[in-house]
Amino acid sequence: MAKITLDNLAHSYLPNPKDEDDFALKELNHVWTDGEAYALLGSSGCGKSTLLNLISGLLHPSQGRILFDDKDVTEATTAARNIAQVFQFPVVYDTMTVRDNLAFPLRNRGEKAAYVAERVQKIARMIGMEDELNRRARGLTADAKQKISLGRGMVREDVNALLFDEPLTVIDPHMKWELRTQLKSLHHEFGHTMIYVTHDQTEALTFADKVVVMYDGRVVQIGTPQELFERPEHTFVGYFIGSPGMNVIPAEVSGAQAVIDGTALSLNRDFGTLTGNVALGVRPEFVSLTKGDGLPVKVRRVEDVGRHKIVRADLFGREISIVAAEGQEISADMNHVTFAPDHVNVYVDDWRKEGVAA
C-alpha cells in the first residue's frame, strides 16, 4: 500500500509539445491517500488511461514526478513499483489452467505452496470460478477470461497499489455488480490503495471512496459522491454526474441576486459583481414545479421512470429537467418553478464560485 503523489505531472504524446493543447494530460499536483479507493471518471479521451499508465510505469511523463510514500519512482520500472494492473481486455495464459493463471504472480515471487493454494482458492471463490479451477483458459468465454485477469490482479496482498483500467467492460451486467461488490469487500479487508478507471458513473460512485473527475486532460474535481452531487466544482461534473445531469442556466449575477432573462432570483450568498460566462447550476432534484411562484416554464413532457418522474420543461427557451416524486400529480396549471436556495451553484466560465454568506 502506498500514498501516491503526483508532482507537477503532465504528459504529451508529441515529441516537442509547444503549448497546453499539445498535452493529453495537463499539469497535475495531487496527493492520494494510502489505502483509499479512487475512481478516475470521465468520457473517452479525457486522459484517464494516460494517468493510470503513468502511475504504473507503462508511460514515462513528459514532465513532473511520481512518488510512492515520498519515494520518487518516476524512473522505476513497473515491476519495481510493485503494483498490480488489470486491463480493459483480458490478459490470460491460454495454455494454463485457471488455477495456474491465478497462482502465477505468487509462484513467480517464490511464495510457499500452501499460501498460494489458500490465496488462489479465496480469489476463485470471489470471482465465482471455484468450479473452473482445473479447466484450461483456452475456450473460456471473454467474461470468464476477464474474471481470471481480475483475479490475478487481486491475488497478491503485498502490492503498493491495485490499478484497474475499465476491467468490467466485457463482463455481463449481473456479474459486474457482484464483482464491484467483491472489489469493495477486498478493499475493506486489506486496505489496498486502489485506482479504478471507468466512464460509467455508477461504477465510479459505488466503488470509490473518492472520485477523480477528468475533463479534457484535467482533473476538475476530486471528492466523495455526495460532494460531486451537491457541489460540482465544474459544469462538466454537474453534467456528467447524475441522471439527468445538472441544469446550467445563463444568468447575470450581482451581489445576492441573479437575473435570468429579466427575471430576478434571490441567492443565499453574495457573489459580488461577476463577469464572463456566468450561469446558475441546479440539480433537477432541487427544482420544484409550482402553480404560480417562481420562474415561468412550459412543461413539454413527463417521463415516468418508476421511482420518480422526470419533467422536461422550457425555461425562457432553454430546456431544463425537474425530478418529481413518483406519486406527484403534474397538472396543467403547474407552470412555474422554484429552486432550493441552498442548492443553487454559481459558475463563471464553467468553474464554481463560492460566494460569502448573504
From TrEMBL:
SMART domains: AAA. Coiled coil: none annotated. Residues 4-241 form the ABC transporter domain. Gene3D superfamilies: 2.40.50.100, Nucleic acid-binding proteins, P-loop containing nucleotide triphosphate hydrolases. Belongs to the ABC transporter superfamily. InterPro entries: AAA+_ATPase, ABC_transporter-like_ATP-bd, ABC_transpr_FbpC, ABC_transpr_MalK/UgpC-like, Mo/tungstate-bd_C_term_dom, NA-bd_OB-fold, OB_MalK-like, P-loop_NTPase. The keyword Ion transport does not apply. The keyword DNA damage does not apply. One of its GO terms (molecular function) is ABC-type ferric iron transporter activity. Pfam families: ABC_tran (PF00005), OB_MalK (PF17912). It comes from the Bacteria. PROSITE patterns: ABC_TRANSPORTER_2 (PS50893). GO terms for cellular component: ATP-binding cassette (ABC) transporter complex, substrate-binding subunit-containing. Keywords: ATP-binding, Cell membrane, Membrane, Nucleotide-binding, Plasmid, Transport. This is ABC transporter ATP-binding protein.
